[in-house]
Amino acid sequence: MNTYRLLVKQGKKVKRQGTAWFVRPDVVVTAFHVVGDQTSRAWDSEEDPTICYELLAGIGGAPISLRSDLCDLQADVALLCSTDAVPAVSILPLSSIAVREEATWRSEGYPIGESGKPFALSGRVTKIWDRDPSEALQLFVRERTGAELRGESVWAGMSGAPVTVEGKVVGLVTKINPYADTAWAAPVAVIRDLALASVCRDLLVTHYKTEEQLRQLMTDLHWDGVEIGSAATPEKTAEQIARHASQNNAHNLHTLLEKIQKDYPDSRDAIRNILEVIHPPGVPQEALPKANPQRFAVAVTHLDNDPDQEHEHLLVEALQEEEDIQILRFDRTIPLDGPQPQERVKAGHDQARAYLEESGAQVLIWGTVLTAKTHSLPKLHWTPARHLELKKKFDRYQLTEDLNLPSVFWSDLGDILRLLVISYGAEFHAQKGHFIADKLSPFIEKVRRLVNGGEGQERWNAETRVNIQFILAGSLQTLGEQTGKGEPLEEAVRAYGEVLEEWTRERVPLQWAMTQNNLGERAEELRRAGSRHPTPARRGHGLSGSPGRAHPGAGALGLGNDPEQPGERTANTWGAEAGRSPGL
After folding, report:
1. pTM of the predicted model as reported, rounded to 2 decimal places
2. How far is residue 542's CA from residue 251's CA, in Å, rounded to a whole number?
3. What is the DSSP letter of 61?
4. Nearest to 240 by CA among 251, 228, 230, 250
5. Domain spans in the chain, listed from the N-terminal domain onward
6. Torsion of the alpha carbons at 239, 331, 325 and 406, rounded to the nearest 10
7. Are 34 and 159 in contact (CB under 8 A)?
8. Quick one: three-class SS letters along 216-248?
9. Residue 279: which of 320, 203, 332, 240 has the closest Cα?
10. pLDDT digits (tens, 9 = 90+) for 389-440
């Protein structure tokens, strides 16, 4: 699990020991009571200058010297920085998902009774408390050591060990009662905020070099509660600001970072590094959520330059009201800054397609938030899972007064979904000589949801809807032909009938004749199969077989006998032809 022994030494004598682990390449985390005194609220090294901290990797490893950094006394969590060059280390990833009761947990540490060897503990989360943060997680412990069974006190060295669920840290061991098979842990949120505050403090020292600048920063942020001594140095003041941000709430940290970026635009990359504390480079992130194969899925990443994720939340809130499509949130950010902006956008689309491939989603929305004084505006990029000729790949979308997305956003989304349907449909039609019924079924369900759910939505105009419905009818036709089932053919007839209500002979004679031909062929197939010819459904009743008005000319089975109708369909009948209808 990549944990380490942490020794508190007074000269050559080991005064205390615990467990620590890396949260950043040069920062470790442990329990504060291992390295300090909670009663005096001081680090051991502050009370006694002869005390030092050393980190050991198992038995016989070269020690790494540490110095005190930041702590949360209430939660019993402490950060220490390395003072030596640190070899390549493994960083444990912090969970971004709230732990649940009854979850199975695992830990690894260095209890005294194990003579310097790592010892693994496991169990289940029995209770999540909102009281003392050092006891936020109550854990049932399964294991017992041989030394414990002999009555020896052996668990002291486990303090500071990470508590993981599914490989991600959800807390840090603070107390263990072996006689009650119970342990307690501080929550991962405290660890994350402290790690953010540590690197944030370093950023403050880099840019705000004088005491006057730092005090002005606090004034601008209206942080009157930060206690600064009269003889404080810039370094100490920066530390106090970082402590204030970390010990109150995450919003303060984001507010501070936003202010720093505004004052010093060249700090953008450094701020990105700070935010990577949550997901350090090289550490596996949470797996992307998987798309439902029977629904079109639209995914959203974090937006660049959106510290509080305000615009992201508004975007997702509006999208999730669309019940006919699945909305996914990716815990990823696609950056747009760099010396070659156009190349950066191209790389962004490549990264977006990789995310789409991993998740199985069809569309990814990503981008940045443009700001000017008090005004902000999201600039969103569209990346489809397939290489399509989009009308536009990005736009600036101004929210409406009621904080909804503008009509142009829904129109753009509808256009992309239409092109995706056409692209997938044409691909299936090209494979019509092969058995593709197993692949057609989930595609049909996706499109059926779009057609049924898109009625009245802003993203659908009449032509977009009829194009998609025509492709749905063709897909149902192929499914019925390949499976020998009558239900898909009956639904195809109803869908063709609804298409003919829009594609009239006067408006689009070619598409009208083609659809009439398909409708007649399907009706004849149903008659030969002994099935009752269904009445085409009234537009707006969906495709569920509800009764509706019969389409003119659909009463007899001679729908394919009109002399103006073409014969066999071309290879691109329900792919390219659908894209040629007027108004597209």
Report:
1. 0.50
2. 46
3. P
4. 228
5. 190-275, 297-405, 415-580
6. 40
7. yes
8. HHHHHHCCCCCCCCCCCCHHHHHHHHHHHHHHH
9. 332
10. 888 899 999 988 888 889 899 888 988 888 888 888 888 777 767 788 888 8
